[in-house]
Structures are given as structure tokens and as C-alpha cells.
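Progress note, sequence design subtask.
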């Protein structure tokens, strides 16, 4: 089945949520799922930069979960949809926590704030972490504006940013590159 990429329906600055409701492209819900999509693209770059097969597999799973989160955010919460949108489960969060614990077992204790960098893979992971935090802030903003979202989305994004931070350190460890400590003037 083939379909056109361009439809021209958004040429005036509006788009449709799943369920049919038209909203401006500047709507908080569009900002939230657009940022999740940006995060997913960054995760793809990170995955392609890593040599560690376990981390690549986890990031592949993360991409599937982020696509589900984006789809859930793209739904109009006031309308029923016939489309099945996969959701996030508590077990998805537990899996990230287990990976964080696994990687932390091999890492030296963190004694300072660290600066992103030292290798492009480490930097990519820190960029993804920052985009993840922005996606989380977008979702929190949705909630503060009384826009309904699944509660586990916030938990997942919060844990994912923790995972990306530890993965950046772990990638450095595998590459034999030390953390760059932030040393304040003084």
C-alpha cells in the first residue's frame, strides 16, 4: 500500500490528533509528542554509535516504547479512538532500572558533577538525555494544563533520562574514557 507523504492539510498551521480533533501545530500536545519523536531520533543515533550489544538492544526497546508514548500523546483524550495504542507498563520502567543497576556495578562511584564529552558517543547520549528531560517537561506542562496523559509516561521519561546518564558514563567506561569532572572556580 502506498500513500503520499504530503497531504497539504497542515499548510495553514493546524494538524489533527488521533480521534480527528484539529489543533494548532503549536498546541502543547503536539509539542510533547514532537519532542518525544525528536528524542526517538536521538536514541537512534546513540544506538548506532554504540558497540555494546546489550545497550543497543535496550535502546531498540526504548525506541519502541517512545513510539508508543508518542502515539498516546497524539490521541485526543476527550475522544474515543478505534485504534489500539500500545501503552507503557511498570515492567518497562523496571527493565530500565535493572539496566541502570547492571551498568552501575562496573562504574566508579560518582563523586562530582560531570561534563558531557570525551567522545562523540558520550556526547550523543547526553544530548538524548537533555531532549528526554525536555520531553518530560512538555508532558508535565500538559498535565498542569489539565490535559490527560497516562501516568506511567512521566515515570518512564524520568527513568529514561536517568538511564541515558548512566549509559553515557558506561559508554565512556567501555571506551576507557574517564568522566570529565566539573570543577567550579573557587
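Output:
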Amino acid at each position: 500500500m502506498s500513500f503520499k507523504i504530503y497531504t497539504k492539510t497542515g499548510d495553514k498551521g493546524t494538524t489533527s490528533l488521533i480521534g480527528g480533533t484539529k489543533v494548532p501545530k503549536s498546541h502543547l500536545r503536539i509539542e510533547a509528542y514532537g519532542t518525544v519523536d525528536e528524542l526517538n531520533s536521538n536514541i537512534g543515533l546513540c544506538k548506532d554509535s554504540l558497540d555494546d550489544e546489550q545497550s543497543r538492544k535496550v535502546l531498540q526497546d526504548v525506541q519502541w516504547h517512545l513510539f508508543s508514548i508518542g502515539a498516546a500523546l497524539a490521541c485526543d483524550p476527550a475522544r474515543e479512538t478505534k485504534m489500539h495504542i500500545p501503552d507503557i507498563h511498570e515492567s518497562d520502567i523496571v527493565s530500565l532500572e535493572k539496566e541502570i543497576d547492571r551498568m552501575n556495578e562496573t562504574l566508579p562511584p560518582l563523586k562530582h558533577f560531570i561534563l558531557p564529552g570525551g567522545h562523540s558517543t558520550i556526547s550523543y547520549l547526553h544530548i538524548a538525555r537533555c531532549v528526554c528531560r525536555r520531553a518530560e517537561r512538555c508532558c508535565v506542562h500538559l498535565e498542569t494544563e489539565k490535559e490527560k496523559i497516562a501516568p506511567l509516561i512521566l515515570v518512564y521519561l524520568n527513568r529514561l533520562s536517568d538511564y541515558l546518564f548512566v549509559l553515557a558514563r558506561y559508554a565512556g567506561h567501555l571506551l576507557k574514557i574517564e568522566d570529565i569532572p566539573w570543577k567550579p572556580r573557587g
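The chain has a mean pLDDT of 92. Work on this subtask will continue into the next period as scheduled.
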